[in-house]
C-alpha cells in the first residue's frame, strides 16, 4: 500500500484513501473514488491532490489527469458553495430541462460552469442525473430536486441562499 507521510487531505480522507487501495484487486480502480473524495475534501481537485493521488496509486500524474478530464462531475476549479446541476438529457429536455437551465442562468446571473461573484452558487448543465421519471430535475450538491417549475426553482434557490437547503450545515 502506498501511504503518504504528509497528506494534504484531512485525516479522515487520508485514512479513507489508505483503505480504498486495499479493497480493489487493482489499485488503479480506486482512482475515481479518490478523486471524488478529494473534491469533497478540498472543494475541487487541485494539482497537489493529483500529485498525491498519483503517488498513492503508483500512477503517473498524467494518468490521473486523463481520468480527471474525462468525468464532468470532477472539477479542477472551485465551485460555489451550492453547485446547481441542471439535467438537459432527453427526458428532462422533453419536459422543460432547457427552460429550467435558462431560468437558473437568468436568476443567478451566470452561465454554464460559472460561479456567482459571492461564491455561493455555481451552475452547470449536465447530461443525466438519473431522475428521468421525475423530470425536469436538477441537483444541488448531492441533493435531487425534481418535477421542477420556475416557481419551484426559485423556492429551492431561495432556501439555499437563506441556509434552509437540504444539505446546508
Plain-language structure description:
With 169 residues, this protein is an alpha+beta fold. It is 44% helix and 12% strand. It has seven helices and five strands, in the order ααααβααββββα. Strands 2-3-1-4-5 form a five-stranded mixed sheet, covered by helices on one side. Strand 4 and strand 5 form a beta hairpin. Helix 2 packs antiparallel against helix 3 and helix 3 crosses helix 4. The chain is elongated, with a radius of gyration of 18 Å. The relative contact order is 0.11.
Biggest β-sheet, characterized? Answer: 5 strands, mixed
Strand order of the largest sheet: 2-3-1-4-5
Globally, the shape reads elongated
N- and C-termini, Cα separation: 34 Å
State the share of residues found in helices, binned by percent: 40-55%
One letter per element, helices H and strands E, the order comes to HHHHEHHEEEEH
| Number of helical stretches of at least 4 residues | 7
Poorly predicted regions = none
Radius of gyration equals: 18 Å
Average pLDDT score? 91
Amino acid at each position: 500500500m502506498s501511504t503518504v507521510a504528509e497528506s494534504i487531505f484531512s485525516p479522515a480522507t487520508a485514512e479513507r484513501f489508505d483503505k480504498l487501495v486495499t479493497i480493489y484487486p487493482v489499485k488503479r480502480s480506486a482512482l475515481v473514488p479518490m478523486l471524488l473524495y478529494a473534491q469533497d475534501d478540498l472543494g475541487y481537485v487541485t494539482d497537489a491532490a493529483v500529485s498525491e493521488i498519483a503517488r498513492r496509486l503508483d500512477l503517473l500524474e498524467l494518468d490521473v489527469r486523463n481520468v480527471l478530464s474525462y468525468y464532468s462531475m470532477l472539477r479542477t476549479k472551485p465551485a460555489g458553495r451550492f453547485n446547481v446541476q441542471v439535467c438537459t438529457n432527453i427526458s428532462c429536455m422533453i419536459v422543460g430541462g432547457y427552460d429550467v437551465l435558462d431560468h437558473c442562468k437568468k436568476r443567478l446571473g451566470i452561465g454554464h460552469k460559472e460561479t456567482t461573484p459571492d461564491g455561493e452558487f455555481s451552475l452547470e448543465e449536465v447530461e443525466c442525473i438519473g431522475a428521468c421519471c421525475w423530470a425536469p430535475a436538477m441537483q444541488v450538491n448531492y441533493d435531487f430536486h425534481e418535477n421542477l417549475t420556475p416557481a419551484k426553482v426559485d423556492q429551492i434557490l431561495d432556501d439555499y441562499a437563506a441556509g434552509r437547503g437540504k444539505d446546508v450545515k
